[in-house]
Amino acid sequence: MRIILLGSPGAGKGTVANLLKQHDGSVHISTGDILRNAVKAGTPLGKKAKEYMDQGALVPDSLIIDIMGERLQESDCKHGFILDGFPRTIPQAEALDNLLEKLSIRLDGVVNLEVARSVILDRLTTRRTCSNPSCQAIYNVKTNPPKTEGICDKCGSPVVQRSDETEEAILKRLETYNQQTAPLIDYYKKRGMLITITSLDLDTIIKEILAALKK
Ligand code: AMP
Question: What is the CATH number of domain 2-115+180-214?
Answer without folding.
Answer: 3.40.50.300
